[in-house]
């Protein structure tokens, strides 16, 4: 009888305790998603952190941003580079029809995607604080510096696109919001000058963090024990930041600071050696048409050659290809076939019966292993020289660039401003910088690509992109 | 099997001898008067009297017949006066008439008639005391078994701790009923000299009438539970329709609402949208791929969570019962998944005995219902095009005069075709009458120890659209073994389906086709220019349908449920169950390279193939301890402690290939390449939940009732910081009919009041909403790959909880002839989880936040009345009525979601989030109608002015899509073996935005003229000044904004089900052919529909009416 009772009690105890066990495993609920990674997982290893930073560079290199839209297609069409056929899908950009449904969508897309990368950079900086001790001090500083520079670079470009014409008077006009934190807090749309101040602050912060950048001593190296220390000119390096600073100060009208920043790069010109005709011509199957050695900051875009085939390839139909009127192109290069930028980058192939030259800068090369394959240049040495020339009104800087493009010194009669404009027109095909140059100078007549000579009248409405609905509606 | 068991006692009665019946012997003292009269032969009487005293009549009879009368003189003073008119009648007949309704009667003895008082009935019966003992199937005593006297309301008792009882019955002809939860009720007819009874109770099979099964293994006695539930047997459901249980549930329960799916109509592959007591969630963007509709109730099949797909495909013949749990007291046991209500389905369990084989066959005919469509015929369409200016060259455009000539010749060509009689009715092309059949076998049997049940089902459905259909098959093996204290049961269930979508694609393509085109197999019906000179092509909807496109879904699933019960003591029971489930679903979608979609694609990308495979694996385990005891014969307590764990893994892999040869059969090996720039898509979801549940039910003398439950729920979905969440409920009830003071009120059988309150949750959100996640991108540079933010989580997100209250009553009267079940409820979901879009510069869209609350208040009622109620003779006629009213209101938004409203505006949706308004409100600009002078619409501005100009700022609430009241009228008649049933749904006072008016009467753009349109576009639109019309000028092809003109009030009646059945239960020939039962049923579902609004129903797939037959035979 006692035994029976005991057995009964044991049964009850077992039953109860297994009940408790089942319900109490807290760890058991710690399920990590398998098809994505949590923040905690990513920031637990140096590789994860490195990947999180690289994710921003990769995303910026896509078609939607610097892969094409902010370089060779949208921005260059807005700068009236090409004779765009009325049947072309991008014809509405040439006419600055910003309220067209497709144009609206594209401008919204640029905005949204640029800010998504800003969020990624902000989140990255924040997470380096939240998950400390994974990186060594130098890498930590380097990565932070890059992230600060990236968010400044992106938001500066947004300011240049969506912000007002930047003169002293206009700089108080509302422009864009500036984000330094990732989160749900909605930042106000700031006046242009305040955005500018934040860009400068971030770049200064980046500069100080990037003092540890090995590029300052070693230049661009091809190999290193750490991936991210190779080819520093494909990341936000110290000199890229300097170049961007020069660009920013000049946009602001602060010529002294612009010249100072520019000169720091110019003094290190040997780290970004000028392209030689040999580089361009010696290897016919792998010509360095982007002048890769001079790049201070560039990105790799996997879409580059797809975009080339979709927009620039000579076998495209007339209504599909983006190319200037031949006479206009000739005028741009002042019929000078010696110019490195003219001869190998523009060719008359006769394919598809085309009687005009087409753009070859972003045509594929044979050797898949060459570093300059897939490269989109975003900041290059020549621009820093132009900035120095403009800031100090010194034509010598301009001549240096000309000499390295197969051209002679300018005659003494030349006007610096006119020549600078010509240089921007020749130098930055497919890089989007000409648009910003026109907008910065608030040039009203700009060359009309549909005719050999003649202009298009510009105004503030054309120069300033409207803020997208996705930004304004939820505000 | 004894899976569910609660502890209950019957009516507690004091044992003291209260003499219920006093035997009063009435002695008649006869003071006799003997009247001697000589007899004179005649026994024939002729009398004509009106209101004559009885004494007088007696004298007359005496005179006419010569009979002597013997009576007490005082008696006749109490007699009622008599009226009669007889001629030559026999003496007995006359006396019968005289004594009808009198308090005395007569007796003829020879030539003397003796008049005497009617003997009191009591004299014929005798009260007695019956004692006995109630035992269970293993001969152990059952305490608390209820012993009642049939057809008596008093004197009931319960067995004591040794199973013994003593009861005083009014007569030796009484019948005693012995009942105990989980056991069959036994009827014992008493004998005149009844000795002690020994009752051995039999375990009830599927007897769920008195039990509320919650699906968690916890059961409650229906008479002492305080939750609002509704129980339906498989038979009841099958009486409504034979296709699936959803059909039956919506007809039988007012709170169970199936939302009309106007897009997919009667497509057999599309799941219904269901709701119990309204919505609790307004955001569907936060779900992950494997989540179900956030407003859908939870389905529990045999104790384990299951999908709606499984429930819809479930063979109805396997269903033993369905219980709908509606309020907090009944659903809190499901904690975080309970807010939308729970539907618990129990399947048939094997019964002991010789092997029984049951075969049932269902045949279903679906007839497409195209009555909602009101399209133009060829002549009308051509006339409409002409009036709309289709054949007038647009002046503003450049071009040569030839264009006008072209248009003129096009018109004449079309007119010639129309005159030739071309008038194609394209709507008929993709539809057909669908025939479906289901065959199912079930065999069961065994002894008390081991029982088995084996089932097989095959169902083939052909949909109302050509080529669409489903094939379902399933098999199950159930085994139970019972020995002493142990009871083990195992169920294996294997099933699969193949669903085919119609190659005809969208039904809308056929609705849009112009009737003046001849039917052909060409790729294009026409290649021509519009009135501004642009070229356009009209694709032939029949062309694509003729290609070998495939869109099919295949599924295979297997599951095993194992359950073990141990009776530790009589009070304590341990129960454990494990389920393992695995399913594979593959979707194949092949589009032929000849499809018109690929007209503009390169040769390398024509034709596409998509393969998407989803694997699901889940396991579930639970363990429960149940304690039940009756203390001091008055306090009944049942308590449960339960723990469970669950893991659910889902994995989806999708890839696409393109570039097929034109004769391809869709085999991916013929593809040219993968889809350019695509990569295999893979989604993996793993969720785990665990919980502890404590629940108790207490009843005092079956009068005062109380329930409480507490659940502590853990889930991977709650976010990283908050893994557990508590849910609880409490309820009180009062069985008024068991009170002493109600004893004299014999016409009330049951009168119960219940009230409860509790907190439940809604967990149908993506599991990672609260944490930030990163993902690798298929992009690379010299530094390798990179990760970017996939989603920014909200770590402060609180989960949606609903506070539910319910007040209800059950009232049964007049011996079950009239019953009321009424519940009033409130569901307050606070806070809501809403996905908002922040300004795009924050880089965040669809960010989950907590905002506002949703308050739903409602009332639901079920009334049944049986004018004829003779269940013993199998004759019952019941009229039923169900009704549901509810209103939902937003609150607490404080304009937080203004941005969402602006987005709704730009997206042209009709809903807004605003305090005090309902999620079902329809928003548009109020319209004042069409100006008879110009044919343009006049809008009402917010300031009261009228204007031609549409301004989105004038948008106000113009209607509500929620009906004022919705429900079902039913009429059920059963006469012997014959049954007839009818359910008619009524929906009153709901507003509808009529898209047919908006898109096919107005808003017909220049391009839209190439499509066929609604007749009203021709007849009811404004044509010339002075026309008073509802619709704007026929010549205007400009875009028309949404206004109140397109919102219509709908009242609707539809015949959800009409059915006839015959059960050959007692026919002798059944035995001769070896059948033990045979039942035949015929149904008509959705056979008619009357609505005050004429609109198109079934945009992509038409609705269908169905006629079905079913046969059920047991061998």
Produce the secondary structure layout.
The complex is a heterodimer of chains A (475) and B (1115).
Chain A: H1 2-23, E1 37-38, H2 39-42, H3 46-60, H4 63-67, H5 74-78, H6 91-94, H7 101-130, H8 137-162, H9 192-209, H10 215-218, H11 238-252, H12 255-266, H13 277-281, E2 295-300, H14 304-311, H15 326-332, E3 346-347, E4 358-359, E5 375-380, H16 381-392, H17 395-403, H18 416-427, H19 433-441, E6 445-447, E7 455-457, H20 460-463, H21 469-472
Chain B: E1 44-52, H1 54-65, E2 68-70, E3 82-90, H2 91-99, E4 104-109, E5 112-117, E6 128-135, E7 146-149, E8 157-158, E9 164-169, E10 175-179, E11 186-189, E12 197-200, E13 211-213, E14 219-221, E15 229-233, H3 234-240, H4 245-252, E16 256-259, E17 273-276, E18 298-301, E19 304-306, H5 308-313, E20 319-325, H6 328-331, E21 342-347, E22 353-369, H7 378-387, H8 402-419, E23 434-446, E24 450-462, E25 469-483, E26 486-500, H9 507-512, E27 524-529, E28 535-539, H10 541-545, E29 550-567, E30 572-591, E31 608-631, E32 635-658, E33 673-674, E34 681-700, E35 704-715, E36 724-735, E37 748-761, E38 773-776, E39 787-791, E40 801-813, E41 818-829, E42 832-836, E43 847-851, E44 853-870, E45 875-891, H11 898-906, E46 921-924, E47 927-930, E48 937-940, E49 946-947, E50 956-960, E51 965-975, E52 978-993, H12 995-1000, H13 1016-1019, E53 1021-1022, E54 1031-1033, E55 1047-1063, H14 1068-1072, E56 1077-1085, E57 1089-1091, E58 1103-1114
Parallel strand pairs in B: 2-5, 6-12, 18-21, 53-54
Antiparallel strand pairs in B: 1-3, 4-5, 6-9, 7-8, 7-10, 10-11, 13-14, 15-20, 16-17, 18-19, 20-21, 22-23, 22-58, 23-24, 24-25, 25-26, 26-29, 27-28, 29-30, 30-31, 31-32, 32-33, 32-34, 34-35, 35-36, 36-37, 37-40, 38-39, 40-41, 41-44, 42-43, 44-45, 45-51, 46-50, 47-48, 48-49, 51-52, 52-55, 55-56, 55-57, ...
